[in-house]
Amino acid sequence: MEVKTTPSLRLGCVKYLNARPLIHGWEGPVQFDHPFVLCRLLARGDLDVALVSSFEFLRNPIYSVVDGVAIASDGPVFSVVLAHQGSIEQLREIVIDPASETSVHLLRCLLGEQLQTMPKFIVEGAITKERGQLLIGDQAIRFRQECGERYQFLDLGAAWKSFSGLPFVYALWLIHPALADQQAVAQALRSLAKNNLEALDKIIAVLPESERAFCAFYYRKCLRFDLGELEKRGFRKFGELCAKQGLIPETPAELRLV
After folding, report:
1. Backbone angles phi, psi at 64, to 5 degrees
2. Spacing of C-alpha 191 from chain mean position
3. How far is 43 from 28, CA to CA, in rounded Å?
4. Could you tell me the CA-to-CA distances from 248 to 29, 61, 151, 182 in Å, in that order?
5. Distance between CA 27 and CA 7 in Å, rounded?
6. Domain 80-164: which topology?
7. What are the tens digits of pLDDT across the range 80-129?
8. Do 227 and 72 touch, CB atoms closer than 8 A?
9. Rounded to an integer, what distance in angstroms lies between the CA atom of residue 6 and that of residue 46?
10. pLDDT in tens, 199-242
11. How far apart, in Å, do the first and last CA atoms of the chain sit?
12. Entry pTM
C-alpha cells in the first residue's frame, strides 16, 4: 500500500461518514473539506489527488480516475434526499446544498425527465408544501434521524435506480494530470480500500458508540465502494443526461482510468 510519493502527496477527501472506509488508515496527511472546496483546490493544482464529487470529472475531464474505487449506491443511499411535503409536482422551489454539485445535478436530471416545469433552485428557505430541500451527507443523515417523521423523502439513489436500472456514482478519486507516478498512487488507494472493506467491523468499532449501528447499516446496505462495469455505465448515463439538460456542453470522453 505504501508508495514513495505518499509523504509529500497532497491528498484531499470529503469529510463525510461515507468516505471513512476509503480513507481510514492512510499514512500521509489528508485535507478534509466539503466537496466544492476540494474540487476548487484540485482544479488549480493545490491538491494532487482528491475524493470529490463525480460531477467534477464531467465538468473538467482533465483528470485521471482511480479504477475500482468509488462512493456509489445501487438503490436507496439514505444520505442524498429531497425532503418535501405534499407531492413533488407541487414544488415551486428547492433549497439546495451547494456543497455537492453531483447531487444537485442528479436532482436536476431526475426532475428534468419527470416534470414539465423545473422548480427554482435557491440556497435558503424552509420546507413548505411548495418548497423542498435537498440534503446530502452527514447533514441528511442527521435530518432524517431527527425530523424523519415530519417529512416525505425522495431518496435520489432509489430514484436513479428506478429511472436507469443502474448504480449511481457520487464520488471518485480524481488525480491531477501534473502528478507523476499516478499508477502507484492509484494502487495505494485501491489497496487501502480493499484492506478497509475486508476489516469493516474494525472501522465501525472505533466510531462513537452512538454511530456504530447506523454505520453498519449504512456501509453494508446503502453504499457501494466499487467502480465496476455497472457503476461505469451508470456514470456514463449520468453524463449523457447532464449534457441533455444543458449542465455540461457535451457528453465527455470515457474515464481515463489508472
Report:
1. -90, 155
2. 20
3. 21
4. 33, 11, 32, 27
5. 8
6. D-Maltodextrin-Binding Protein; domain 2 (3.40.190)
7. 999 999 899 999 999 997 777 899 999 999 999 988 789 999 999 999 99
8. yes
9. 16
10. 999 999 999 999 999 999 999 999 999 999 999 999 999 999 99
11. 15
12. 0.94
List phi, psi (to 5°) of 88.
-65, -30
Residue 140 has pLDDT above 90, yes or no: yes
C-alpha closest to that of 82 among 107, 100, 102: 107
DSSP state, 255?
Answer: P
Q: How far is CA 101 from the centre of its chain?
A: 9
CA distance 235 to 240: 9
* Cell 456509489, located at residue: 72
6-72+167-244 adopts what CATH topology? D-Maltodextrin-Binding Protein; domain 2 (3.40.190)
Q: Sheet holding 120-122: strands in order across?
A: 120-122, 93-95, 131-136, 80-84, 152-155
Which grid cell is 187? Answer: 494502487
What does the DSSP assignment read for 68-126? Answer: EEEEEESS--SSEEEEESS-GGG-SEEE--TT-HHHHHHHHHHHHHH-SSPPEEESS--
Sign of the CA dihedral 188, 28, 19, 53? Answer: negative
Annotate 174-190 with DSSP letters as a single string. EE-TT-S-HHHHHHHHH
